[in-house]
Amino acid sequence: MTDHTAPDIATTTDDGIVIVRCAGELDLDGAPRLRDALLDPIRDGARGVVVDLTETTFCDSTVFSVLVEVSRAASARNVPYAIAAGETAVTRPLQILGLDRVLPLHAGLDAAQAAVG
Predict the structure, then answer these.
(1) Is 40 helix (H, G, I), strand (E, B) or coil?
(2) SS3 (DSSP) at 96
(3) pTM of the prediction?
(4) Cross-strand pairs, 25
(5) Which residues, in sequence order, are CB contacts of 28 under 8 Å at separation 6+?
(6) What span, in angstroms and rounded, lies between the C-alpha atoms of 105 and 85?
(7) What are phi and psi of 21, to 5 degrees?
(8) Tens digits of per-residue pLDDT, 64-74?
(9) Rounded Cα–Cα distance for residues 42 and 2 (Å)
(10) pLDDT band of 4, cuts 50, 70, 90
(11) 31 vs 35, 36, 115, CA distance in Å?
């Protein structure tokens, strides 16, 4: 990563389900924003939380730690949580690390939304 641009992180809510869309490169700099965008709705009692990483072009280990942290927080509060991770940039590293076996990964946004709805 030579040209670092801040990731585009946008949050929408549909019938109590919060969708956090991330586009671009997610790394140490963007991880705190992502953590807040995902944990705040869980703490506030959202009906479900989906993180859409289908337009994410790069993830580092800091972001993977955030995804695990959020999964644990959602589970502790009984909030359905799903990750739409269609891009190889996200799914392949998660598979290599074995996190695909512990995180609620889905191939696309529709599948992730269906999982929490």
Answers:
(1) helix
(2) helix
(3) 0.92
(4) 58
(5) 60, 62
(6) 6
(7) -100, 130
(8) 999 999 999 99
(9) 34
(10) low
(11) 6, 9, 24
